[in-house]
Design brief:
Blueprint lengths: L1 H14 L5 E9 L10 E6 L7 E4 L5 E7 L2 E8 L6 E7 L6 E8 L3 H6 L9 E3 L4 E4 L11 H5 L5 E3 L5 E3 L5 E5 L11 H7 L5 E7 L13 E7 L6 E11 L4 E10 L3 E25 L5 E26 L4 E23 L5 E27 L2 E24 L3 E25 L4 E23 L5 E3 L5 E20 L2 E20 L6 E18 L3 E12 L10 E5 L2 E4 L7 E13 L3 E23 L2 E25 L3 E23 L2 E24 L4 E10 L2 E3 L2 E3 L2 E12 L4 E8 L6 E8 L2 E9 L3 E11 L27
Parallel strand pairs: 1-7, 12-14, 30-33
Antiparallel strand pairs: 1-4, 2-3, 2-5, 5-6, 8-9, 9-13, 10-11, 13-14, 15-16, 15-43, 16-17, 17-18, 17-42, 18-19, 19-20, 20-21, 21-22, 22-23, 23-24, 23-25, 25-26, 26-27, 27-28, 28-31, 29-30, 31-32, 32-33, 33-34, 34-35, 35-36, 36-39, 37-38, 38-41, 39-40, 40-43, 41-42
Length: 812
C-alpha cells in the first residue's frame, strides 16, 4: 500500500505543469541611446502592489527575470532621473518566455534640474535565506580592508583584535566566494585585514543556513563575494590612496568577457600602519589575604605590507557546459613593536618589558569548477579546491624587573595549513513548484604548528628552553551528504533538508611533558526546515529551523602555553568537545513601493559551551578553555530600508538580544594543585543599532554616513562595556564617472575601543584596549574599457555564489 501511494505521488509530481518562463530585455536612455545600468526592474502580479521578483540591469543595460509561472503581470522599470515605465505582459504554458527587446527610458526634465543622475545600487536586498549587502560603492571604506567593510555590516562586529562575530556570537564561518578559501580561526583576522575593500562586490549574511551548507558556525555564515562582473568586451580600474597613519594602498583589475571566455585578474597592495594600546588594572588577593595591585600600560605599533592577487577564467565549452579555473593568493609581512610597563599600588615602576616581532605569511587557493546543464531545471556542478597557507613569526622580549633583574626571550612560530575540498551538487526541478537538490562534500585538513623558545639574561646570551618548545599537529577528515526538497503550494512554500556528517580528527603534541595524542570521531545528522506563507498586501512570514555545530580548533585545543606576558599565560585544551546548537527563526517581511521592513525573531540553545576560564596562581593569571556550561540566546532583529526624497537611501538595523549563560562551579586541576572556579551565570539583555545613510547630490557628488552603537554585554567571568563609532565619506565623479575621488573618515569620534571587566575568586581586573583610532583616507580611482552595451551571445545568467535553493520558487 505504501509503495503504491509513493509511486502515485511521484507520478503526480512529474505530470504537474512544468512551464517556468523568463522575461528579458535591455534598458537604454531615449536621448543618448546608451545603456542604463543599475536600473530597477520589478515584476508584479495582476492586482498586487507587492513585487514578486526584482532585479537590476547590468552595465550593458540588460536584465533577466527567471522562473516565472504562467499568468498576467506588469513589469515596472524605474530609475532616478527618468520617468517610470509599466509594461503589461502575459505568459502561457505554450509561450513561457518573453523578450521585451529594447526599452527606452525618457529623462524626467524636472528631476534632472534638481539632481545630476549618479547610478548607485541598493545597499541591501533580501534573498531567499540571506541578506545581501552591496559594498562595491561603500564610500566610508574606500582604501580600507575587508575587516573595515565588515564593521559596517548590520549585526556583524569586528573587535580590536580582528575577531568577527555575528549577532553577538563569535562562532561564525567566514567564506570567500562560497568557500572557506583557507580562512581559519588562526589566520582569519590577518587575511581580512590585508584584503582590499576595492576587491569586494558584496557581503552575504546567512544566519540560519540550510542543510545544503556546512553546519559549522552556530551563528551562521558570512560570505564575502569578490568582484566578477560580466559585460561585453574588456574593462577595469586602477586606484590608489593614502591615510593619516602613513599607510598607502593601490589596486588594479581588468576583466574580459566574450561569448566563449570570461577572464579576470586583480592585484591589491596595502601598506598598513596602526597604533595600539591597552591599559590594565588588577587587584588580587593571596592566601594570607594581602591585596596585590598591578597596573599595566601597553603601547605598540603595527606595520604591515600585503599583496592580494586573484585571477581566473571560465570557458563556455558548449551551450550546456562551463569549465572554470580560479586562483587567489596573498603574501605579506607584519612587524609589531610594543612596550609593557607594570606599576604597583604606589604607582612605582616594577617591570619594564619590550617586545618586537616580525612575521611573514602566504596563502594560496586554487579552485577548479565544472557546471553542466542537462536541461531546463536540471543541473550538475562539481568543484575541487586546494588551500595552502604558511605563517612564520619571530618574537623577541626583553624584561627588566626593578631594581636590576633582567631577562630575555626569543620565540619562533612556524605554522602550515593544508586543505582539500571536493563538492558535487545536483539539482532537479520537476516543475515550477517542486525541486530536489542533493550533493556530497569532503574536506581533509592538516595543520602543523612548531614553536621554539630561547631564554637568557639578555638577547646576546640565549639558550634553548625545552619546556617551552611545542610541535602541534592536527589532522581532520569530514565527509558529508545532503538532500533538500523544495515545494510551493499556492501561497505556502517549504523546504525540508537533511545533512549527515562524519568527522574524525587526531591531535599530537611533541613537547617536554609528552602529552598523550588526542583522537575523536563521530557521526551526526543536521536537519533543516524552512516554511513560508505569503499574506495579503505585501506581507510575508517565514519559519525555519536548523542544527549547527561549533568545532574547537587551533589555539583552543593546542596545549602550548603562550608566555608573551609572564603575568597572564594562556593555553588550549586538546580534550574539548564540539558545541551543538539548535536554531529557530521567525521572519516577517513587509514591502512597500520605496520601503521594506524585516523583523527576525530568533532563538538558539547551545550545549557544551566552550568558555575561556581563568584562575590565579600567584603571581600569574592562567587562562584556558573548557566545556562547562549551557547557553540560550534569543533576539529580535529589525531591519528597515527606506528611500526618501529620491536622493537618500537609509538602512537601519536594531538588534535586541537576550543571553542566558548558565552558572557553574568548576574545579580545575593543574598537577597536584586544585583551583575552584565559580561563576553565578548571567541573564543579560543587550542591544546594538546601526544606521547607514547613502546620499546622491548634484554635480556627481555622493556621500555616506554610518553610525554604530553596541550596548554592554556579559561574558564568562565578566562583562564588556558599551561602545559606539561613526564613519563617513564623500565621493566626487568626473568625466562620466571615469574618474572618482573619495575622502573617507573612520572612527571620527575616536571611540572604537573595547573595555572589559573580568573577575574570579581571588582577583578583579579591568582592561581598556584600542587598535588604530581616528583616520582619514583619500582615494583616487580611474576606470577604463569598452562599454558599448553589446549583448552577450551566451545568455546564461551568473547566479550568486551562495544561491541556496537554486531558484526563486519560495516567495521569501
Amino acid at each position: 500500500m505504501k509503495k503504491t501511494i509513493f509511486l502515485f505521488l511521484f507520478h503526480l509530481l512529474l505530470i504537474l505543469p512544468s512551464a517556468a518562463g523568463n522575461i528579458k530585455g535591455r534598458v537604454i536612455d531615449s536621448q543618448t541611446k546608451q545603456a542604463v545600468d543599475f536600473c530597477n526592474v520589478a515584476l508584479y502580479a495582476k492586482g498586487n502592489k507587492t513585487p514578486l521578483k526584482s532585479t537590476a540591469t547590468n552595465a550593458a543595460g540588460t536584465f533577466t527575470l527567471t522562473d516565472i509561472t504562467a499568468g498576467t503581470y506588469t513589469v515596472k522599470i524605474s530609475f532616478i532621473g527618468y520617468t517610470n515605465i509599466e509594461l503589461p505582459i502575459r505568459l502561457t504554458t505554450e509561450k513561457p518566455d518573453a523578450d521585451l527587446h529594447t526599452i527606452s527610458l525618457v529623462p524626467d526634465s524636472k528631476m534632472l534640474k534638481e539632481v545630476e543622475v549618479v547610478g548607485q545600487r541598493s545597499q541591501m536586498r533580501f534573498d531567499v535565506d540571506k541578506k545581501v549587502f552591496t559594498v562595491d560603492q561603500n564610500i566610508a571604506a574606500a582604501g580600507g580592508s575587508a575587516s573595515e567593510i565588515l564593521q559596517n555590516i548590520p549585526s556583524v562586529d569586528v573587535d580590536t583584535e580582528g575577531n568577527v562575530s555575528l549577532r553577538n556570537n563569535s562562532s561564525v564561518e567566514v567564506w570567500i566566494n562560497g568557500r572557506p578559501s583557507g580562512l581559519n580561526e588562526d589566520n582569519r583576522a590577518q587575511i581580512l585585514e590585508q584584503m582590499p575593500a576595492e576587491s569586494i562586490e558584496s557581503i552575504e549574511v546567512i544566519t540560519n543556513p540550510s542543510a545544503k551548507y556546512s553546519p559549522e558556525g552556530t551563528a551562521g555564515i558570512i560570505n564575502i563575494v569578490l568582484k566578477k562582473d560580466r559585460k561585453a568586451g574588456y574593462y577595469g580600474s586602477i586606484s590608489a590612496g593614502a591615510n593619516t597613519f602613513g599607510g598607502v594602498d593601490g589596486s588594479a583589475n581588468i576583466n574580459y568577457n566574450s561569448a566563449k571566455v570570461d577572464a579576470y585578474a586583480n592585484i591589491g597592495v596595502r601598506n598598513m600602519r596602526f597604533p595600539n594600546q591597552t591599559d590594565t588594572q588588577r587587584e588580587s588577593w593571596n592566601e594570607n589575604g594581602d591585596t596585590v595591585i598591578l597596573n599595566q600600560k601597553n603601547r605598540g605599533k603595527m606595520v604591515g605590507l600585503g599583496t592580494f592577487m586573484r585571477a581566473g577564467t571560465t570557458w563556455h565549452a558548449t551551450s550546456r557546459d562551463d569549465l572554470g579555473v580560479n586562483l587567489m593568493a596573498m603574501i605579506g609581512k607584519r612587524d609589531n613593536h610594543s612596550t609593557l610597563k607594570s606599576f604597583d599600588g604606589d604607582n612605582l615602576l616594577t617591570r619594564d618589558r619590550s617586545s618586537s616581532s616580525n612575521g611573514k605569511h602566504r596563502m594560496l587557493n586554487i579552485a577548479l569548477d565544472y557546471n553542466h546543464q542537462f536541461s531546463k531545471g536540471e543541473n550538475l556542478s562539481a568543484s575541487v579546491s586546494y588551500d595552502n597557507g604558511k605563517r612564520n613569526s619571530s618574537s623577541d622580549y626583553l624584561q627588566v624587573t626593578l631594581p636590576d633583574i633582567s631577562s630575555a626571550q626569543r620565540q619562533t612560530d612556524d605554522n602550515h595549513d593544508e586543505r582539500w575540498e571536493i563538492k558535487i551538487d545536483y539539482s532537479k526541478a520537476f516543475n515550477d513548484r517542486f525541486k530536489l537538490e542533493a550533493g556530497y562534500q569532503g574536506n581533509i585538513n592538516n595543520r602543523n604548528s612548531d614553536v621554539k623558545t630561547w631564554d637568557g639574561t639578555d638577547k646576546e646570551h640565549l639558550v634553548s628552553n625545552e619546556k617551552l618548545n611545542d610541535l602541534f599537529k592536527y589532522q581532520e577528515n569530514i565527509q558529508a551528504l545532503y538532500a533538500t526538497f523544495t515545494g510551493k503550494i499556492e501561497k505556502f512554500s517549504f523546504q525540508l533538508g537533511l545533512r549527515g556528517e562524519y568527522m574524525h580528527y587526531t591531535t599530537r603534541t611533541i613537547a617536554y611533558n609528552n602529552p598523550e595524542p588526542g583522537e575523536k570521531s563521530y557521526w551526526r545528522p543536521y536537519p533543516s526546515v524552512f516554511l513560508a506563507y505569503s499574506l495579503p498586501k505585501g506581507n510575508e512570514i517565514q519559519v525555519n529551523y536548523t542544527s549547527r555545530v561549533r568545532r574547537p580548533r587551533g589555539r583552543q585545543i593546542n596545549p602550548f602555553r603562550n608566555v608573551t606576558d609572564s603575568t597572564q599565560i594562556s593555553f588550549g585544551n586538546p580534550n574539548l568537545d564540539p558545541e551543538f546548537s539548535n536554531s529557530l527563526e521567525l521572519n516577517y517581511i513587509k514591502n512597500w513601493e520605496d520601503h521594506t521592513l524585516s523583523a527576525s525573531l530568533y532563538y538558539r540553545n547551545t550545549n557544551g559551551v566552550i568558555q575561556n576560564i581563568s584562575y590565579y596562581d600567584a603571581p600569574t593569571i592562567f587562562s584556558t578553555y573548557e566545556n562547562i556550561t549551557q547557553s540560550q540566546n534569543a533576539g529580535l532583529e529589525l531591519t528597515a530600508k527606506n528611500r526618501l526624497f529620491k536622493m537618500l537611501d537609509l538602512t537601519t538595523t536594531v538588534n535586541l538580544y537576550y543571553y542566558n549563560l548558565k552558572g557553574f562551579d568548576y574545579t580545575y586541576k593543574n598537577g597536584d594543585k586544585e583551583f575552584n572556579i565559580s561563576y553565578p551565570g548571567d541573564k543579560n539583555f543587550a542591544w546594538n543599532a546601526r544606521l547607514m545613510a547613502n546620499m546622491i547630490f548634484p554635480k556627481g557628488f555622493s556621500a555616506q554616513v554610518t553610525g554604530n552603537y553596541n550596548s554592554r554585554q556579559a561574558v564568562a567571568q565578566g562583562k564588556t562595556y558599551d561602545n559606539y563609532s561613526l564613519d563617513a565619506g564623500i565621493r566626487k565623479s568626473f568625466f562620466s564617472r571615469t574618474f572618482t575621488i573619495a575622502l573617507s573618515g573612520r572612527d571620527l569620534l575616536d571611540s572604537r575601543r573595547r573595555k572589559t571587566e573580568t573577575w574570579g575568586n581571588n582577583f578583579y581586573q579591568i582592561s581598556n584596549s584600542r587598535f588604530a583610532g581616528r583616520s582619514v583616507t583619500l582615494t583616487f580611482t580611474y576606470m577604463f574599457g569598452t562599454n558599448n552595451g553589446n549583448k552577450q551571445k551566451n545568455n546564461r545568467q551568473q547566479n550568486d555564489v551562495m544561491d541556496s535553493f537554486g531558484s526563486d520558487m519560495m516567495d521569501f
